[in-house]
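Quick one, probably user error.
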């Protein structure tokens, strides 16, 4: 009896340790041009545990539209560069998935995906430890709403 209680307590500890160090986040891209979580809440920030070596953001496009109509991606870059990256992405156009090829201001970016598709972006946490990094969608006109902060804790 005592042994099983002990095992249960140990189990609870390992579950909470895992939750605290979760090195990934699941985002949904919607037809209202928002990033939402599984609970349907708009996501404007993501906590990145500093204990993680790499962090992965997985994106699911939950619309029913083609990627050229309501495409979503996740781009990681410094907050101060986001506007300029979005403008250059608009110039690059739909054929380049609204991202300038080889843009050195982009730390990491997922593919642009359409309705029903799933993609992910992975980046080293050491790169964003200084702070000031955001995530956003580079599809034409989406950056204003689909845009949030990466908070390293
Ligand atoms: Zn989008």
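Nope, works fine. Designed sequence:
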């Amino acid at each position: 009896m005592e042994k099983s209680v002990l095992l249960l307590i140990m189990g609870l500890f390992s579950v909470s340790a895992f939750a605290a160090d979760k090195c990934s986040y699941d985002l949904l891209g919607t037809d209202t041009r928002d990033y939402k979580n599984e609970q349907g809440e708009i996501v404007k920030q993501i906590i990145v545990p500093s204990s993680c070596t790499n962090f992965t953001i997985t994106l699911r496009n939950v619309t029913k539209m083609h990627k050229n109509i309501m495409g979503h991606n996740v781009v990681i870059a410094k907050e101060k560069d986001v506007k300029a990256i979005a403008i250059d992405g608009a110039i690059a156009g739909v054929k380049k998935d609204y991202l300038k090829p080889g843009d050195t201001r982009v730390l990491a970016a997922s593919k642009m995906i359409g309705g029903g598709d799933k993609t992910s972006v992975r980046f080293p946490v050491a790169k964003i430890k200084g702070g000031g990094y955001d995530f956003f969608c580079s599809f034409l006109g989406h950056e204003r709403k689909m845009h949030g902060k990466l908070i390293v804790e």
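The chain has a mean pLDDT of 91.
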